[in-house]
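User: Structure tokens for both sequences below?

Assistant:
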Amino acid sequence: MALFHPFSCLALVFLYTLLSLLVVSHQQPLLDPAERDAVFRVLNSVNPAVSWRTVFPDDDLCSSAPHGVVCDYFSDDDSDVPSSAHITELSFGFVSDYAPNPPCSSDSTIDPTIFTAFNFLRKLFFYKCFTNETRRVSLPADAVSPGFSSALEELVFIDNPALVGPLSTLLRNYTNLRRVVLTGNGVYGEIPEGLGDDSVGLEELTLSRNQLSGPVPSSLSKLKSLRVLDLSHNHFDGYLPEALGNLTELLKLDLTSNGFSGKIPGGLRNLQSLEFLDLSYNRFGNYGLPLFLAEMPKLREVHLSGNPLGGAIPEIWKNLGGVLGIGLSNTGLVGNIPASMGVHLRNLRYLGLDNNSLEGTVPVEFALLGTVSEINLENNNLSGRLPFSAKIGGKLKLGGNPELCVDERLGSGSLGKLKVCTNKPVIPNAALFSASSNPLLAVPHVLVFLGFLVCLGLINS
């Protein structure tokens, strides 16, 4: 019997491998020509200096597309074999060496095709693409009814100040949105009233640093899955709706630098998962600090600076031991600083009480804030002996309190031109350090504190 020649065997193996590769490649459908042409049109609008059709193959774009252009393969409901290919992600603008998206140029524009040709698009991302404010880029009218309205999950436009147009042009009729980040753009107008009706699965809504205005619609309260709501640095005004308290999954609420007024709504007490609250630099006023903060034990940062809240600092700190940062600068506070802040806020990193009308002494209990990085008490009417030195706890800002003094053994050092105290230090009331009203439980706390003062040199051992 004749045997195959070795070269004949090799030829058969090569032929079989080639046929297998052809079969496999045939199983992966090609991108529709119209969709492929739309990709090149969009790429050319983002950076016309690059010859995109020369750099990337025209026949099978899905297999070797630019980094920010992503394809996916789709099958019929009753089959596992892919039957079509579609663009599912478009990301433009350099982010890092690990995400080399197609770079934008100074003449970047938006081709209207991007809103009509990609019905399967899940992510649309532009980072620092439209930055030349002398060459403004307007959102096209076709964006009002985008073809991907039922597929889009992420809409991200970051630091594109030359991109202008109404917010309603970008946010309308989406049913599967999970994340919206529109930060640092020229987008204007109001939040669409029906946003909460269409995007009930939305988890992040960040609209910071735009030109947005008007009230916050109550329909946002329907976004039950929302975890981040950031409307900071815009021109929003009016009262905050009580219904925002229905956003029970919320972790971050940032409304900094707007024109909100009236009372901080008590409905926010229902945000039991909230960790970050920033309502700074609005016009909330004349109702004092909200007492319901004591009912939000997961809070880690609370910032209310720049609102004319008025009133005294309430005794609400017992349940807020996990707070890391408190900003109450320029809020019209009067009266004394509660000693309980020093007793309970043991994890505090930052405390801002500057530019108020606080008076009395700085509580000696503040010497226990060993983890704090900055305490700002500037421009108040505080007086008496300072219970800590610049060496304890980090940065201290105390200017504008001419009646404050420092112990002569410590010296003012970097504390500014504080005068030296002439009176003897006062030992604090033991009850302030007790774990309960039981005086027997208070004794160990007093001994620890006295030992602490000995170490600081404030009293003789």
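Moving on to the next sequence.
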Amino acid sequence: MVKKVFVMLLLFCTAWTARAQELQCDVVVNSEQVQYTDRQLFSDMQTSIFEFMNNRRWTDQPYQPDERIKCRLLINLTAMPEIGTFQANVQVVSLRPTYGTGYETVLFSFIDKDWTFQFNTAQPLDFSENNYTSNLSSMLAFYAYMIVGMDNDSFGRLGGAPAFDRARNVLNIAASQGAGYVGWKAFDGNRNRYWLIDNLQDPQFLPYREGMYKMHRQGLDIMAQDPEKARTTMLGFLADLQRLQQQKPNAAVLRAFFDAKSDELVNMFKTAAPVQKQQAFTVLSQVDPTNNTKYEILLKR
């Protein structure tokens, strides 16, 4: 009887843990540019970051195992100025399923070039929401909250607000206690962690955040059933982005949006009616000239 109760408790705890974590995060650490004989260090780093992202709760929301947010951290180590100190550029990517299909859309894609951190296999990664522990744990926590916030915004209007508040708190603590690490302050650059969260919490960017909900719930999620309606919704969102680009040219969050979505936008409109294709091209070529070559396919009959 005691054994049976123990097994039931164990199963309950396991099920609760599975519901608790929000992220299903793949982590890749590329150390090819770093000359160091003990290569096990980089495997340990990858494992530690993987466990940090996947084995803790980032919100109070219940998540079922199949609801966990798929995401990736591609950490490209570029230098080791001294033993235990690393410089890197990192691509953060998150995915979102679309309703009624097996398709996963890239929701967030951002390259952060300002990673400098210490890592020691003997010292486990730790994080406290109200205290600074290390630059690495702060950067990882910041992007965990960003990923959750972006995902929640796509499923509910402004649903990501609590996660973005937590990301802002991480940023404020790291900026004040982080021993001068870059990426946390406005003057560190124009496309860094500061500007990402600043854009998302700026009232002027409210059309962007509301548009992310419209694009996904009223666009991509109905694309298979009603492509005409989905494209009409998307054109409205693109018009909002065009106005934002005029008000806030080269904003970090807009650049991140087109890095994530340019290919998908082409696919959404390349089979549209000629009028919609022309409308999409006109807006996209203005707001995202970097990818203009991609958008030119929309002009073809």
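User: Anything stand out in the second?

Assistant: The first helix runs from residue 2 to 20.
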